[in-house]
Every structure is written in C-alpha cells, then in structure tokens.
Amino acid sequence: MRKLGCCTWIFGGASLPEIAQRVAAAQLDGVELFGDINGVNATEAHRIFGDAGLEVFSITPGDADISHPDPTIRTPAIAYYDKLMDWAAELGQPLISCHGQVGRIRPITGQAEEDVLLADAVGRVCEAAAERELQVVFELLNRYETHQIRTVSEGLALIAEVGANNLRLLPDAYHMNIEESDSALALSQGGEKVGLYHAADSNRCGIGDGHTDFAAQIAALDTIGYNGPIILETNAPGPNPFTPDKGEGFRNIVERQLATSASKLAAMGA
Which residues does 34 contact at the CB level (< 8 Å), separation at least 6? Predict the structure, then answer.
C-alpha cells in the first residue's frame, strides 16, 4: 500500500493546525504543502504536521511565471524557487513541484521562444535543488491552466532537453483526463520518470465521483514500480477551478472526499 496525502491548498485558507486535524481525521499519511514562503514558518509547519503524525511529502509552488518573456517578471519568478528550496530544506527535504504561471494559457511573444525560456528556467530550478540535495517534479497541467507541457510525452521531452538528474514528472489524474487519450498508458510511458502522482476524479471531486478509471491507473503505477505517495487534490463541487472555496461547509465536503477516496483507493490495492 502506498502512502496517501493531500494538497493543503484545497482547504482554502484554513490554519495549519486545522488542516493537520482534518487530514489526520481522513486517515491520510501526509500532505503536499503550499509554498507560502513569506506567510508560513517552515520549522513550525514541520512541527504541526509531525505532531499530528503526518509527513510533508512535497511542496506545491505559488504562481511564478518562470517562462515569461519579460525578464523583470521571469527573473524574480526563478528567484522565488531559490528561496523555496531553503524553505523546503527546513521541512525535511520534500519533493519540489515546479510549473509555470497557472492560468496563462497562451504565449505572449511566441510558443517556441517561451518553451526555450521554460527549459532554461527549469534547469536553473533543478540546479538550485541539486545544491541542496532536493528532487524536482514538473507538474503536468491542462490546456485551461497552461500553454506549456501538458502531456507525459511533452514532459519526457522537457526532461531530455533539461538533462538534470534530479528532474522527474508529476502526472495528475484530473489533468490527464483532459489531455491524454489513455491516462494509464501515459503513466506506463512515463515509467521511472514518474516522480509523484496526483489524484482527483474527472470532475476534480473525490475518487468515484467522476468517470476516471483509477483501477487502470493504479495498475500502471504498479507496472512501472512507482512506490511514492498518492497526493489527493480534490475540490468541493462548484464553479471557478482557481479557488477551493465553493461556499459554506466546503472544508467539511473536502474532508469527506479525502476519507472516501482513501477507502476506495485502499480497496483497489493502491
């Protein structure tokens, strides 16, 4: 059985002690912590989750447009990741997730130019991570959130271009439902380059609330020997995918989604 975690951002501004309590109540093993380097004390966060019996598996970054053609935007975005590395080191060396500005869905100058800038930026992030003995996973988003690197095959090409030994991929079941013709096959093709896996159903709700074939995806993870955690990234039902706050009681809904998802994944032998 793999360990289970969830993203902390899905609780929408709840305090870390409340998040820890809810995650533990759902019987998960840990979290993917949102990279709020200015608002969260890493040492304190490590203590809060540790006291609740939870691990910090990974870090999801705040928005930072690392492929923006304007260097006055791109340079501080890359610098954010450098600060994120030191912050993460205080949390026990979790995986560092990397991606571009969520919601920028078209190039400003040209696709080819910005793809070059992205590869250069990811290389810089990986170099900074290697200096701190950290691993990086590049998260594959969907076309409604990014114009760059949306499929496993594109991600593998990025890895080859960057050439960093500490770079792998983060496929997400929700995003793959949009971008991949066969999500389980995509995971199989990712092979040893799959460094982390996110799970939410086709409607971004809990496992079983949509039409995603999770049994096939778990079988693919077994085939490639993926033994890392499964990170749940569910949302309560409702519009606006860029906020977890879907109205009164949304945190209770999310907590129930996590508990139910954990039970269903366990039944699949995940």
Answer: 7, 8, 9, 40, 59, 60, 62
Position 213 scores a pLDDT of 98
Residue 241, pLDDT score: 86
The b-or-e profile of 12-33 (16+ CB within 10 A means b, else e) is: bebebeebbebbbebebbbbbb
Q: What parts of the chain have a pLDDT lower than 50?
A: none
Radius of gyration of the chain, Cα coordinates, nearest whole angstrom: 17
Q: How far is CA 145 from CA 46, 48, 118, 194, in A?
A: 30, 32, 15, 21
Question: Which amino acid appears at position 140 of this protein?
Answer: L
Tokens of 151: 């499929």
- Give exposure, 180-206, as e/b (b: 16+ Cβ within 10 Å): beebbebbbbbeebbbbbbbbbeebbb
**What pLDDT is stored for residue 1 in this prediction?**
85
* Fold of the 4-267 domain: TIM Barrel (3.20.20)
Cβ-count burial of 119 within 10 angstroms (0-12 exposed, 13-18 middle, 19+ buried)? Answer: buried
Answer for the pair 210, 202: CB distance below 8 angstroms, yes or no: yes
